[in-house]
Write a structure and sequence with these properties.
The chain has 262 residues and is of the alpha+beta class. It is built from two helices and 20 strands. It folds into two domains: 115 residues, no CATH class; 135 residues, no CATH class.
Length: 262
């Protein structure tokens, strides 16, 4: 009975993690560039009661194993990098990546982070930064006298200056791609960092190398589907209840055994 309790307890722990992940997805349904996560599970080792191929009392061979599993364990938390819906904002500093790339961000400690969140702002000196003030890399500074800026699909940034008939090119955006984006480390603030699992970033100009193109005046919404997440939550809740029922049943069976008299 103790084995059944531990097995069911592993199922309850797994479903608790599942619900935690679903709750995080739902909490970020309006987060720009957010990618929904999913918990993956594996069954645990099995106890062999009888092995296939052994001889029975009558001399025949046992055709299949008799084995009892020890439950479940979480093994991975993966992200779905499917493109989110693009929404128009009419803000020239809002940039959407239509493809697989990431914007590269220079952190205060000199390291790099990567994001799909293109809701950029201007610092006090006209430099393009994130909402937290981290620099977009390569660094691009908008002239104070610029009346408007434009960003082409291939990442060329231009500004209209007074008394100038032609736009002035002021910078070139770059995008990073990873061989295994599932291996990126999420550090919050819509940022990721590379890891040994993700591989080193491959840098391209937009519209090159499969990194995707830039769409100015748009933002990429979260790719969380509320209906799917609600269904997943109901399934996880039912699984949690069933595992708790298994523990309750095991406890009742143990009580019956303890009450046996010779």
């Amino acid at each position: 009975m103790i084995k059944a309790m531990r097995t069911a307890a592993s199922g309850m722990h797994a479903q608790q993690l599942n619900v935690d992940n679903i709750a995080n997805n739902l909490a970020n349904v309006n987060t720009t560039g957010f990618k929904r996560g999913r918990i993956e599970f594996q069954d645990i080792l099995y106890q062999k009661v009888r092995t296939a191929g052994t001889s029975s009392a009558e001399g025949s061979k046992v055709p299949v194993d008799t084995e009892i599993g020890y439950g479940v364990r979480p093994v991975a938390s993966t992200r779905n990098y499917q493109q989110g819906t693009m929404t128009a904002t009419e803000n020239p500093l809002d940039l959407c990546i239509e493809g697989d790339g990431f914007f590269r961000i220079l952190m205060p400690d000199g390291s790099y982070a990567y994001t799909r969140d293109g809701a950029f702002k201007l610092s006090e000196d006209g430099t393009i930064v994130t909402a937290d003030g981290f620099l977009l890399d390569p660094e691009i500074t908008i002239p104070a006298e610029a009346s408007s800026i434009s960003v082409s699909i291939d990442g060329l940034v231009s500004a209209i200056l007074p008394e100038e008939s032609d736009p002035l090119e002021i910078g070139q955006l770059e995008l990073a791609r990873f061989i295994n984006p599932q291996g990126l480390n999420a550090i919050g603030r819509n940022l990721f960092t590379e890891s040994t699992a993700s591989g080193s970033p491959l840098t391209y100009n937009p519209s090159e190398g499969g990194a995707g193109r830039i769409v100015q005046g748009y933002l990429e919404l979260s790719n969380v589907d509320i209906v799917t997440e609600m269904v997943n939550m109901i399934v996880a809740q039912r699984a949690y209840e069933i595992n708790s029922k298994a523990i309750h049943t095991s406890d009742e069976m143990s009580a019956i055994v303890n009450q046996l008299r010779r």
